[in-house]
Write a structure and sequence with these properties.
With about 425 residues, the chain is α/β, with parallel strands linked by helices. The chain has eleven helices and 15 strands. Keywords: Exonuclease, Hydrolase, Nuclease.
Length: about 425
């Protein structure tokens, strides 16, 4: 058995924060969420999956017009043509009371109730799916504890839109614990709401967030897609595999250490190198990379970067346009003036003074004895160690070692 688990499709949600400028690949990004959904359906058909699980937020809110619903309906019909059932729940973005427009879905799609948990049993496929959608966007009740008992001799899936006990950047909707989920006795929990892929529990019970299928802004970086779940004949999960779906656009944050830059031109060279590192590994035909550049760290170029941020921004945009597949979302300058330490001449002087002090102490045991006594060190040490430190030869040896250690530290900074 193979199941394809996805969530947070946010169909027709715009990609946010991207400024239009000459050479920016705007047209390629317009339908990014639609292309990701098409890729999901393509993958389901190619893998001949048993079912598709959609764990909430199919939509990004009420449709501006019916075209969003028509597009989704067509993709579900493609799955029906391949004899693939779909199980979906409403999340906080497409909660029942948020949607003023609706369309009938193909008969291979089961939308779970929003007033109580429901179970769909498909004995022919060996599958039982349990779920409950959001009746309103701000569900704060623990829905999971009311889910039904597992159906014996079938693979049981729990479909739930939740942030568990809370996740940074996500509202605390339908809160529950891992223990609440494990206690239901299902083999797999198909979760939605958190936009980063995470396997929250990896034992005989799998609890998985697949992440969203398409990054939409600078806080949603990295590969986005779905999870392919392979189930063995004993109704145990044999494999969990992430599949990228974001063929149109991917978000990155390129943090650039400016320590080696002397001026703005040097800074641009460092940015170009980091852009290549960030983007080259994720390059795919037709994919645009939306990048936020953060120039940071102490640097000699600090004042030049802050003085001429407009030129720096457009130099970075120019670098991106020369590649053709990079759109600069934003350039942030978070540099600082270079750290000021002692000059080479000052270090040489300190080193000379240190060696002279060491020579004086070695030649004057009485002064060294007074220095050790006035430090209060002897009273803080174990009696055996303190007694040894009162011997002039031991004091002289340690003084020489201390001077050599400090001298080595200063030599390392020259």
């Amino acid at each position: 058995m193979k199941l394809l688990h996805a969530a947070d499709l946010h169909v027709d949600s715009p990609l946010r924060g991207l400024s239009r400028y000459e050479g920016a690949p705007a047209e390629q990004l317009r339908d990014a969420t639609r292309r990701a959904l098409e890729n999901l359906v393509d993958l389901a058909v190619a893998e001949e999956v048993t079912a598709v699980l959609l764990a909430g937020d199919v939509y990004d809110g009420d449709w501006p017009d019916y075209n969003t619903g028509l597009f989704f309906t067509r993709q579900m019909a493609r799955l029906r043509e391949a004899d693939i059932p779909v199980y979906l729940i409403a999340g906080n973005h497409d909660a029942q009371n948020s949607m003023t427009k609706t369309l009938s879905l193909p008969d291979n799609v089961h939308s779970f109730r929003t007033d109580r948990p429901d179970t769909v049993v498909d004995e022919a496929r060996g599958l039982a799916v349990h779920g409950q959608g959001f009746a309103r966007y701000d569900i704060t009740d623990n829905l999971a504890v009311h889910y039904p008992s597992p159906v014996p001799d079938l693979f049981n899936v729990g479909l739930l839109h939740t942030a568990l006990n809370g996740r940074e950047g996500h509202h605390h909707y339908a809160p529950c614990s891992i223990g609440d989920l494990v206690d239901r006795g299902y083999q797999y929990w198909a979760l939605g709401h958190v936009h980063r892929r995470r396997v929250e529990h990896d034992s005989d019970v799998k609890v998985v967030f697949p992440g969203n299928i398409q990054g939409r802004h600078a806080r949603e970086t990295g590969p986005k897609g779905c999870t392919l779940v392979t189930v063995d004949d004993r109704h145990a999960v044999a494999d969990l595999r992430h599949h990228d779906l974001d063929s149109t656009a991917r978000w990155h944050e390129a943090r650039v250490d400016m320590a080696g830059a002397r001026d703005l031109d040097d800074a641009c060279v460092l940015v170009a190198e980091q852009l290549a590192k960030e983007v080259d590994a994720a390059t795919a035909p037709g994919r645009v990379h939306a990048v936020r550049v953060v120039a940071e760290g102490p640097t000699d170029a600090h004042h030049a970067l802050h003085r001429d941020q407009e030129r720096f921004l457009n130099e970075v945009r120019s670098l991106a346009s020369q590649r053709g597949d990079v759109w600069i979302e934003k350039v942030r300058v978070k540099t600082a003036p270079p750290e000021e330490g002692p000059s080479a001449a000052q270090l040489a002087g300190l080193l000379g003074d240190l060696r002279r002090v060491g020579d004086l102490l070695s030649a004057d045991p009485e002064r060294l004895k007074q220095l050790v006594g006035s430090s209060g060190l002897l009273g803080k040490l174990p009696s055996g160690v303190g007694a040894r430190l009162q011997r002039p030869d031991e004091q002289s040896r340690l003084a020489v070692e201390a001077v050599e250690l400090l001298a080595a530290e200063l030599e390392g900074r020259r």
